[in-house]
Amino acid sequence: GAGVSQSPSNKVTEKGKDVELRCDPISGHTALYWYRQRLGQGLEFLIYFQGNSAPDKSGLPSDRFSAERTGESVSTLTIQRTQQEDSAVYLCASRKGGVSTDTQYFGPGTRLTVL
Amino acid sequence: DQQVKQNSPSLSVQEGRISILNCDYTNSMFDYFLWYKKYPAEGPTFLISISSIKDKNEDGRFTVFLNKSAKHLSLHIVPSQPGDSAVYFCAASAKDSGTYKYIFGTGTRLKVLA
């Protein structure tokens, strides 16, 4: 597709369960970001992948959160032992290259609800 | 510590009038600023950006102004249209180890009244 896609669009899970969220970036985009937006708050940076470089994990809120990306393709964000505070919209964005003015393009997000 | 602040959670404007959305930041290392627009159930879409070497950038009905000394930027929409009703986020970026991650404000919900 032409844009960033994410799946699932909605996920409802029980506290303590693990969830996996998927992001398909725009083809050819080397940089990929995960953000989350809690209710009433701004977008919060989680993790950044650029090509084959080591990811910037500085935004991950706890060791329950992890993400993987193979090359310049799909990325998965995994949340283990989910907590109610993890409820948020998780957004993925991709960017063409390493120039600071390259725009990030966002997917529609995955709304995660932890009961 | 909120590095990017949008102090107005909502704004209502009559169709045809000017909408002014404001954003303040605290980190003097930010050198690139953007505005994104978000409709419900969709991801944010890029609207307009400005580099710190400029103080104004214009694109059609949208103009972004940057006041570096005040660490303030604003988005002007003129004339406002009902289709502009959305949540607007400002974001800032710095050349921090090449990550170029965006720091977002909390958003301002704009409602343009017909």
Topology readout:
The complex is a heterodimer of chains A (about 120) and B (about 110).
Chain A (H helix, E strand, L loop, with lengths): L4 E3 L2 E4 L5 E6 L6 E7 L5 E8 L14 E5 L5 E5 L8 E8 L8 E3 L3 E5 L1
Parallel strand pairs in A: 2-10
Antiparallel strand pairs in A: 1-3, 3-7, 4-5, 4-8, 6-7, 8-9, 8-10
Chain B lengths: L3 E2 L4 E5 L4 E7 L6 E7 L6 E7 L4 E4 L2 E6 L4 E6 L8 E8 L8 E3 L3 E6 L1
Parallel strand pairs in B: 2-11
Antiparallel strand pairs in B: 1-3, 3-8, 4-5, 4-9, 6-7, 7-8, 9-10, 9-11
Helical percentage of chain A:
under 10%
Number of helices of chain A: 0
* Major sheet size, sense and barrel closure of chain A: 6 strands, mixed
Strand-and-helix sequence of chain B, N→C?
Answer: EEEEEEEEEEE
Q: What is the average per-residue confidence, as pLDDT of chain B, rounded to a whole number?
A: 93
- Give the averaged pLDDT of chain A, no decimals: 92
Q: Which structural class best describes the helix and strand composition of chain A?
A: mainly beta
Strand content of chain A: over 45%
What are the segments of chain B in which pLDDT stays under 50 over at least 5 consecutive residues? none
The secondary-structure element order of chain A is EEEEEEEEEE
Distance between the termini of chain B: 38 Å
Helix content of chain B: under 10%
Low-confidence stretches of chain A: none
Query: What is the count of β-strands of chain A?
Result: 10
Shape verdict of chain B: globular
Relative strand content of chain B: over 45%
Largest sheet of chain B: 6 strands, mixed
Over all CA atoms, what is the radius of gyration of chain A?
13 Å
